[in-house]
Amino acid sequence: MLRPHPLRDVVLIVDDAPENLSILHSLLDKSGYMVLVATDGARALDCAHRLPPDLILLDAVMPGMDGFETCRRLKEDFRTRPIPVLFMTGLAETEHVLQGFQAGGVDYIPKPIRPAEVIVRIASHLRNSRLIVQTRAAIDAAGQAVVAVAPNGEVLWLTPLAQSRLRGSLDVEGRLPAALCDWLHGALRASEDRPFELLTASEELIVSRLRRGAHGEELLMIQCKVGSPEPAALMQAFRLTPREADVLYWVAAGKTNRDIADILGMSPRTANKHLEHVFEKLGVETRTTAARMALNLVTPHIAQ
């Protein structure tokens, strides 16, 4: 849905107290924000799905669905998960503050609110959120289907292209398929870059490790499998020997060095030596990157 004022940040205020809504609405409107309001958790979820705001000010204590449960539900949905949530509450006990952060909130504003502080906090979180959104949008605009995964298999964030390709493959809790999690854990233990083939209802995908993030999350690339180029094409494109081209062909097909050695009738050490020569000629350091370059000969979209 298109926003009527694309240059104005949208803030959703969720509070069951009319006087609080009035004060905050006036404050934010005068500060240049487009303001939406909801008086309970259910209306907040509906509003956030119909017109996703840039930030949510959420009252922690409300009748029915409280702010903590509302925040948890927002964070369960990929469409609303990236929206920063700032809790507003008069509950100053540590357990309530921690509960807000555990539910997915990024900040805590005590009541009664201090207008200047609220505006500064909102501006700071919007700035940080905007940088994250722009970075992910840039990745998606470049045609990269990337997903960040926590050690337990939970999807932390993903680009729209990755979301499209994984649609229907994630479980109800937003985690990767069990087989894919097992592959990732095995790859981490063995320090391997071997890709994983994921068969969905509509296509076959190639999942490759990109790198580990600053907080332990794994960044994965999701590609559509369209087949590997013939060894002759690899020889010509990368100036490889026949054996090097054979090795690269099977690397692009997702085979391990031991698999390649068995297929080509050579020792794993010889297969590894050929692969080292391939890396040198391609100017790469990992088999994932080498496979991606090989698959690009079939169609540039394979690396997208």
Automatic annotation (TrEMBL):
UniProt-listed SMART domains: HTH_LUXR, REC
InterPro entries, alphabetized: CheY-like_superfamily, Sig_transdc_resp-reg_C-effctor, Sig_transdc_resp-reg_receiver, Tscrpt_reg_LuxR_C, WalR-like, WH-like_DNA-bd_sf
Source superkingdom: Bacteria
Any GO BP annotation: phosphorelay signal transduction system
Identification of the protein by name: DNA-binding response regulator
Gene name per UniProt: cheB_6
EC category: hydrolase
Single Gene Ontology MF annotation: DNA binding
Record domain HTH luxR-type: where: 233-298
Span of domain Response regulatory: 10-126
Keywords of the record: DNA-binding, Hydrolase, Phosphoprotein
Modification 4-aspartylphosphate, positions: D59
Enzyme Commission identifier(s): 3.5.1.44
Cross-referenced Gene3D superfamilies: 3.40.50.2300, Winged helix-like DNA-binding domain superfamily/Winged helix DNA-binding domain
Organism the protein comes from: Paraburkholderia rhynchosiae
